[in-house]
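Annotated sample (chain length 119).
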Amino acid sequence: MRIGELAHRTGVSERSLRYYEQQGLLASSRTPGGHREYPEAAVDRVIRIQELFAAGLPSRKIARLLPCLRDADGGPSELADAQLVADLTAERERIDRMMADLARSREVLDHVIEAADGS
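Output written by the structure step:
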């Protein structure tokens, strides 16, 4: 499929798809006319990349992680090493801290809203 179709099917801009290629996260072949062509599996790959970016992972960590995942089910791979596991554990702990901070902020806002509402 061409870049426009991949962008449409994944909701990701063509510019982002080109960036993913530049970062080594996504691969395409070229037609004789120089147009990018992607395999059907690229849809799952782009969705996975988006999920990892949404989790707060930078592209360099995503590039290390992607070869360790199967696109369709995200299962573990024998390519995952101890350092990658440690890095991902640290990322998960960072996200947990952010979630706790947000929960505390929400609680403070709830108290302020309650006080302002006179309840």
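Annotation: DSSP finds five helices and two strands in the chain.
Annotation: The longest strand covers residues 29-30.
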